[in-house]
Write a structure and sequence with these properties.
258 residues, alpha+beta, Glutaredoxin, 7-stranded mixed β-sheet, disordered N terminus
Length: 258
């Protein structure tokens, strides 16, 4: 099968859905009722320069997107990194509205491996960093977010799902985003939700967020038509009443002038 045919097939939403189901069906999803609103473990991590710090220091007073990967994975992790990169580049708000950490759950990943990962994906090592930790610390973090993975000693690879975890400025889990091709809309809305813990969104962002609702079945944001219709009806009524009042005022003013 040619690469062109493969690329065309991957753009088909049905094919994407099948691939997502196959990739994730062998893992237990995090029970969101147990984890949403809970704080992630503030573990000790190291980055591509070998600098050790605690995970919370990377939040920097704004939402943090945690992307579990391991650097020696060239299949699913590559697909996820590519999908996240495309969506984030499309948004153009990395560093302004949120930061990202690609967290390796493979404790054999060295600082050099993390540096090679950052180079491979052309990430800045600042607003988007590659980090890892010791086995004990990794287990703490993975347990705190409900992330499951298995190591195959024969292939020396990990089997794992593709999930992004959106964390609030105080370190609480705000939203899970599933799949290797996260939508720009899902990332944008999840970041707005997470940021609302600290500051209320502006009128435009607040209205945009209110126009969507999170669908726990399909695990994505969908347009809230009920809100849009009711809001449109309300604005129409206000417009009609305003027009009547203005006309009545003009008529009364003219009568007084006479």
């Amino acid at each position: 099968m040619s690469e062109a045919i493969i690329d065309k097939s991957l753009k088909n939403p049905i094919v994407k859905g099948i691939i997502l189901w196959v990739l994730l069906s062998s893992f237990g999803f995090p029970n969101e009722n147990d984890y949403l609103g809970q704080k992630i473990a503030n573990i000790t991590v190291y980055d591509a320069k070998g600098v050790q710090t605690n995970l919370y220091s990377l939040i920097r007073n704004k939402p943090l997107i945690l992307s579990p990967i391991y650097t020696k994975c060239y299949t699913m992790c590559g697909l996820l990194s590519n999908g996240v990169q495309q969506s984030v580049n499309g948004l153009g708000t990395l560093g302004k509205d949120f930061n990202i950490v690609s967290f390796s759950f493979d404790s054999t990943d060295t600082s050099e491996d993390l540096a090679a990962y950052e180079e491979r994906w052309k990430i800045d090592g600042n607003h988007w960093k590659a980090i890892s930790a010791s086995t004990k610390e990794i287990q703490k973090l993975m347990a705190s977010i409900g992330y499951e993975y298995d190591y195959n000693s024969e292939t020396k690879e990990y089997a794992h799902p593709s999930i992004l975890i959106v964390v609030t400025p105080s370190g609480k889990i705000s939203r899970y985003i599933y799949g290797v091709n996260p939508k720009q809309k899902d990332i944008q809305l999840a970041v707005i939700e997470a940021m609302s813990e600290k500051t209320r969104p502006g009128i435009i962002k607040g209205f945009y967020l209110r126009c969507f609702g999170y669908d726990p079945v399909f695990k994505t944001y969908k347009i809230d038509w009920r809100f849009i219709i009711s809001t449109s009806a309300g604005l129409l009524m206000i417009g009609v009443l305003g027009s009547i009042l203005i006309k009545s005022f003009i008529i009364d003013k003219n009568e007084w002038a006479e």
